[in-house]
Amino acid sequence: MSALPRRIIKETQRLMQEPVPGISAVPDESNARYFHVIVTGPEDSPFEGGLFKLELFLPEDYPMSAPKVRFITKIYHPNIDRLGRICLDILKDKWSPALQIRTVLLSIQALLSAPNPDDPLANDVAELWKVNEVEAIRNAKEWTRKYAMEN
Amino acid sequence: MDSDEDMETFEVDSGNESSSDDIGFNIEDQNQNPKDRQNDIEEFVFNVLSTEEIVQHMIDCIKEVNIIVEIPATTTRILLNHFKWDKEKLMERYYDGDQEQLFAEARVINPLASRSSQQPSTSSSMSSKAKVSRRCPPNSEECEICFTLIPSNLMTGLECNHRFCTQCWCEYLTTKIMAEGMGQTIACAAHGCNILVDDATVMRLVRDPKVRLKYQHLITNSFVECNRLLRWCPSPDCNNAVKVQHVEAHPVTCKCGHRFCFACGENWHDPVRCSLLKRWIKKCDDDSETSNWIAANTKECPKCNVTIEKDGGCNHMVCKNQSCKTEFCWVCLGSWEPHGSSWYSCNRFNEEEAKEARGAQERSRAALQRYLFYCNRYMNHMQSLKFENKLYASVKEKMEEMQHHCMSWIEVQFLKKAVDILCQCRQTLMYTYVFAYYLRKNNQSTIFEDNQRDLEAATEKLSEYLERDITNENLANIKQQVQDKYRYCDLRRKKLLEHVHEGYEKESWEYMD
Questions:
Q1: Is B500 helix (H, G, I), strand (E, B) or coil?
Q2: Of B226, B259, B293, which residue sits at a domain end?
């Protein structure tokens, strides 16, 4: 593998020096492009109190192409599917090389606060979110308790 | 166009010259009928443009607008592209509408607004906090992409003032062009900024000739694709485009020799219209007919519904599906049990269910047969058309032979003309079967079928004559024979097309769903 670009080294340093509240991102010991991420569920959301594990990978042509991010912890959310894949525009066509790991993770945290069932990835979840939000939120809380609060 | 026109004129001339003695058969004169669209071909003006000419045309379009609207040429290009290169539409919006909104829609900064009033948009707000905390030495800035301190003179940006270092810009543009195939629609590299990168900026920042070439190709392509009056020649490896004055289903001939319909890009397909041809091609391409074949040639087990093809004479069927093994009669699809020894009594088992199954099968069998009838004839003419191209070679020999017998070059051109007409007839016939497939029977459709029959018979005669009989014929007779035959074919072809076009005008054609 080619040498780590300056941008990744610097970005990782800054991420360590000035961590984002509620988010931790630590590079893997054997692969500096692979990050172990933990996002805390935002306050006043059904995910409050949960700790959600994610994996983040910086592809070869990062930052020209977007990082690959996936939830490892199961989560009941209309824009996140059973495999933990996330439907978020900045991870797809709205990616800009001026964005960073930091901004991506903040956007994911914001997505937890504001689910968008009109642009769904998990259809069944989105459907329930639209027709019966109360029940959907109850499910999300239930899943948070079950899968994101174990340890 | 010039060269094409010459060719066209030349062919007509050669035909006329050799036919001066038999005016009665002169089709060229007979068909000065205004309804005859075939003759409109000459009136339908089109140009063939090479890649360089396309680029020049694009530049001319921009200049034309810039004479009136005084904004940078690069901005004009983006605006024109936004309006699919429709100058009038752009002018109308520019002078009648809200200009600010127009620029915003086209994703450019209003070049008329003073630059100082432009603030960088708030897009990078999340990262700006981090930026504030970091101090930069004078005359240098940190590039938000590579996180490197860069002398200010190496930082650049669009009118939106999002600045990055030239190297990151280059890498960004290269990725967009090479990996994502974007040309006209590359946006500023800043997050959330949708201002488009103009071509001059791309050319300034990207030095790699391979990337520049690809970019120019993408730009030209989007110019041709979104310009209603332009169409790429669909012939493989041809880089020309055809330009017309107005869009219409008309045959155009590229400099490479390929002749196609300007409106849909398919081979010229008179008498069938673009929309029906499109349906036909789709039908032939997708596998709906495979499923029709299955429906027509197989039956389903009445119990487990597995598809069964009968491969022997015996009508006592035993389902091979191991979990089913039901025994039934192939003819009536009823249970085999009551058939016993007297199988002829199976018409007794006219249960509603079995009846229905047979009815559905017959319907799909009939539909398949109907499709295959038209498809076979369509394919057959297509195949013949390919073979007729071999005739050009054999006819050329014949022409040389005749020239050795004191005939001038111009006098023997009638043979080539005969093959031309034969090919035209084949092509027309081919598409008459597409037309006929969708046609609902009425009085006019009967006349159409008569015309089709006459043309087909005449065409086969001409084909046979050129392929076989010609070798046994006295050289002196050939000319008369061939001319009579091809003129008749041409006449029948024109009559058929005329009748179909008349039907379009009078709306006498009815179609199947």
A1: helix
A2: B226
Tokens 């000459």 map to which residue? B42
Measured between alpha carbons, how far is residue B330 from residues B174, B351, B452 in Å? Answer: 65, 14, 41
- Chain A residues 5-24 with CB within 8 Å of chain B: 5-7, 10-11, 14, 18
- Say yes or no: B189 contacts chain A, CB-CB below 8 A: yes
The model's pLDDT over B295-323, given as tens digits with 9 standing for 90+, comes to 667 787 877 777 788 776 677 788 877 77
The CATH number of whichever domain residue B182 belongs to comes to 3.30.40.10
Instruction: Tell me the pLDDT tens digit for each residue of B168-206.
Output: 999 999 999 999 888 888 999 999 998 999 988 999 999
Question: How far apart are the C-alpha atoms of B109 and B86, rounded to whole Å?
Answer: 21
* Separation CA B160–CA B146 (nearest Å): 20
* Nearest residue to B283 via CA among B221, B204, B370: B370
What is the fold of A6-147?
Answer: Ubiquitin Conjugating Enzyme (3.10.110)
Return the structure tokens found at B433. 């079967």
Asked if B423 and B361 count as a contact pair (C-beta separation under 8 A), the reply is no
pLDDT of residue B297: 75
- The four Cα atoms B439, B443, B447, B449 give a dihedral, to 10 degrees, of 40
Say yes or no: A92 contacts chain B, CB-CB below 8 A: no
Residue B188 has φ and ψ, to the nearest 5°, of: -50, 150
Domain limits of chain A? 6-147
Q: How far is CA B413 from CA B15, B192, B484, in A?
A: 8, 67, 15
Q: Which residues pair with B242 in a beta bridge?
A: B48, B231
Q: Chain B contacts of A64, Cβ < 8 Å? A: 171-172, 175, 179
Interchain proximity B148–A14, CB inside 8 Å: no
Least confident of A125-129, B62-66, B241-245, B347-351: B347-351
Pairing of β B259-261 and β B298-300:
unpaired
**Does residue B448 share a domain with residue B387?**
yes
